[in-house]
């Protein structure tokens, strides 16, 4: 996920819209004036992918860190439906980034004002799913995670010819797919037919089910495309992660050389190579094999060369397979598509990965002056700008601007309503708590469905976690230990309880599926409400305990000075040349 900030696009839209429907040679040259320019590397969402043989319990897992900072964080449950022949599905344009004041209504009602005049045929049946910024899992355990990867500027299509944006694409996939492969084919074919883009450009989706997990990448095909051209309105490619492997997408294209004849591991649109040649993104005379990411979304970074700003690729592979000793100097484009982890990953392992702050590496943002006296890793999540210059800072996997993070689990040994879980964590990962939402539930807590960045609301779940995060940031090294205790109590305990919940729900399901659904719905909602209430209480406790940069012990009713680390005090003394106090007289 990213924000489009480029003046080029803003100034160019008027020209593009005016000329797109009858492009002249001059317009073509204007649109493609600089073929070398690529979108700035996005710094948004991180996706982790785990094959079923790479997990400790055989589940297929994916993550999505929604790293926007201003986006809508609300979640909702979308029921399935049955439709008669000829019924249409209205298409709306849905920006990832735009929100409205709560008084104007929830985003998912407000976007109905952005009906674009297109209805596409409804299937006989649509599937129920859980939806946040995107669709995350449907009743068939088809799951999605998202990461923006960028695209060459000349491929961006922000004109009305692009009917399908990314959010809508995931909704359509959730509504119609029975498997991950179905979802990819559905999204790809709809994007080709109706045109992809408008709000979005190059994107990656992790698409999974209880058996497989794929990386699906899609690009628009430029502002001059029209449906009347009879050409595909998108170009896309998908590659399957081997069952015993893990992978990651940190806002960078991951698919390299492809073999569409190997349908067990690759899928794609018919125009993958021909369109790259047409747009001068690939030279067939070069003698080099076609490489998707080098053609459509190349980057030139390594962890070291970017000063840690583009270190998530290296960090993930180093954590997952330390025995392979991946170098921080390795260009990100050269990292493997996936790797067999040294040890299989549990759901808790994956959650911990989403919280990673590069601890113990040279990119640790808590070390030295930039972490302050209390080793806060969150002071500089973006490059520092000073005196007209920009300076690299580490961009970690876990960032404090996250709207929420999801960990999806797809499990083939249980019925779909029980097998699928969306673990949801609101706000910054390091100070939040993952809560399970079984895919069979029929409602989610009201507190998950409301809230806004600019209006404090104690009825909104997200604000409970922001409340704790705010009080943790002040004295991070101390307060984070209190948060970890709460996470162990509520998150770790829930993870340990899940097998028992599964067993009981399965027994109910075998006798009466409706009773099992009711049980799971009640469990998820009760657990979520308990966690949210616990986080409000934790925030109050942190405020009392650390106010005034002191330490108030509510049990002993005593106050003490909050200890500062010696290295910080030594630097303060040195920098300010503090005079020594004379020894006290005895």
Strand composition percent: 15-25%
Largest sheet properties: 6 strands, antiparallel
What sort of overall outline do the alpha carbons produce when their principal axes are compared?
A: globular
Structural class: alpha+beta
Strand order of the largest sheet: 14-1-2-18-19-20
Overall residue-averaged pLDDT value: 91
Radius of gyration: 25 Å
Q: What is the helix fraction of residues, given as a range?
A: 25-40%
Q: What's the total number of strands?
A: 22
- Which residue ranges are poorly predicted, with pLDDT under 50 across at least 5 consecutive positions? 3-39
Helix count, per DSSP?
14
Distance between the termini: 64 Å
Label this structure with key terms.
single chain, 586 residues, alpha+beta, 6-stranded antiparallel sheet, 5-stranded antiparallel sheet, disordered N terminus
Detailed description of the structure:
This protein is α+β, with helices and mostly antiparallel strands. The chain is 30% helix and 17% strand. It has helices spanning 7-19, 25-31, 107-110, 166-176, 180-194, 272-278, 292-296, 312-320, 347-354, 416-419, 461-474, 476-511, 513-546, 566-576; strands at residues 47-50, 60-66, 76-78, 81-82, 88-92, 115-121, 125-126, 129-131, 135-138, 143-148, 203-208, 213-219, 235-240, 246-249, 266-268, 384-386, 389-391, 404-410, 421-426, 435-438, 550-553, 558-561. Strands 14-1-2-18-19-20 form a six-stranded antiparallel beta sheet. A five-stranded antiparallel beta sheet has the order 10-11-12-13-15, with helices on one face. It has a three-stranded antiparallel beta sheet with strand order 3-8-9, with helices on one face. Helix 11 (461-474) packs antiparallel against helix 12 (476-511). It is globular and about 95 Å long. Mean pLDDT is 91; it is low at 3-39.
């Amino acid at each position: 996920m990213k924000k489009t900030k480029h003046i080029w696009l803003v100034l160019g839209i008027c020209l593009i819209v005016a000329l797109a429907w009858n492009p002249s040679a001059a317009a073509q040259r204007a649109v493609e004036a600089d073929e070398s320019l690529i979108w700035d590397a996005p710094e948004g969402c991180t996706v982790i992918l785990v094959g079923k043989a790479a997990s400790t319990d055989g589940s297929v897992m994916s993550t999505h860190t929604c790293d926007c900072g201003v986006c809508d964080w609300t979640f909702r449950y979308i029921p399935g439906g049955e439709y008669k022949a000829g019924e249409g599905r209205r298409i709306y344009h849905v920006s990832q980034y735009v929100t409205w004041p709560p008084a104007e209504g929830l985003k998912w009602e407000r976007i109905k004002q952005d009906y674009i005049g297109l209805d596409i045929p409804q299937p006989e049946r649509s599937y129920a799913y859980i939806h946040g910024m995107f669709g995350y899992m449907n009743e068939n355990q088809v799951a999605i995670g998202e990461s923006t990867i960028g695209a060459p500027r000349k491929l961006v299509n922000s004109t009305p010819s692009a009917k399908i944006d990314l959010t809508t694409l995931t909704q359509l996939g959730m509504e119609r797919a029975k498997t991950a492969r179905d979802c990819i084919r559905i999204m790809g074919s709809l994007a080709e037919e109706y045109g992809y883009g408008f709000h979005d450009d190059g994107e990656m989706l992790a698409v999974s089910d209880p058996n497989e997990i794929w990386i699906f990448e899609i690009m628009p095909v430029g502002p001059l495309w029209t449906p009347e051209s009879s050409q595909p309105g998108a170009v896309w490619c998908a590659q399957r992660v081997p069952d015993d492997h893990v992978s990651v997408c940190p806002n960078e294209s991951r698919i390299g050389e492809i073999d569409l004849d190997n349908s067990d591991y690759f899928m794609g649109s018919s125009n993958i190579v021909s369109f790259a040649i047409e747009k001068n993104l690939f030279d067939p005379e070069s003698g080099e094999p076609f490489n998707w990411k080098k053609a459509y979304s190349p980057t030139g970074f390594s962890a070291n060369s970017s000063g840690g700003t583009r270190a998530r690729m290296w960090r993930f592979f180093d954590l997952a397979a330390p025995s392979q000793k991946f170098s921080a100097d390795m260009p990100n484009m050269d990292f493997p598509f996936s790797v067999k982890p040294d040890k299989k990953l549990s759901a808790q392992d994956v959650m911990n990965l989403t919280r990673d702050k590069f601890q113990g590496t040279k990119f640790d943002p808590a070390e030295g002056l930039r972490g302050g006296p209390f080793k806060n890793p969150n002071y500089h999540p973006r490059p520092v700008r000073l005196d007209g210059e920009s300076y690299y800072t580490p961009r970690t996997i876990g960032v404090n601007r996250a709207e929420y993070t999801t960990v999806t689990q797809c499990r083939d040994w249980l019925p779909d309503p029980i097998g699928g879980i969306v673990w949801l964590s609101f706000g910054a990962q390091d100070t939040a708590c993952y809560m399970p939402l079984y895919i069979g539930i029929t409602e989610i807590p009201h507190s998950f469905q409301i809230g806004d960045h600019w209006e404090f609301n104690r009825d909104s779940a997200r604000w409970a976690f922001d409340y704790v995060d705010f009080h943790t940031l002040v004295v991070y090294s101390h307060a984070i230990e209190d948060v970890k205790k709460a996470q162990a109590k509520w998150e770790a305990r829930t993870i340990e309880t899940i097998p028992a919940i599964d067993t009981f729900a399965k027994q109910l399901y075998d006798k009466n599926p409706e009773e099992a659904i009711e049980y799971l719905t009640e469990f998820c909602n009760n657990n979520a409400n308990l966690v949210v209430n616990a986080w409000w209480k934790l925030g109050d406790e942190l405020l009392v305990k650390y106010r005034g940069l002191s330490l108030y012990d509510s049990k002993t009713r005593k106050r003490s000075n909050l200890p500062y680390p010696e290295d910080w005090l030594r630097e303060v003394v040195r920098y300010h040349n503090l005079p020594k106090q004379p020894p006290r007289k005895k």
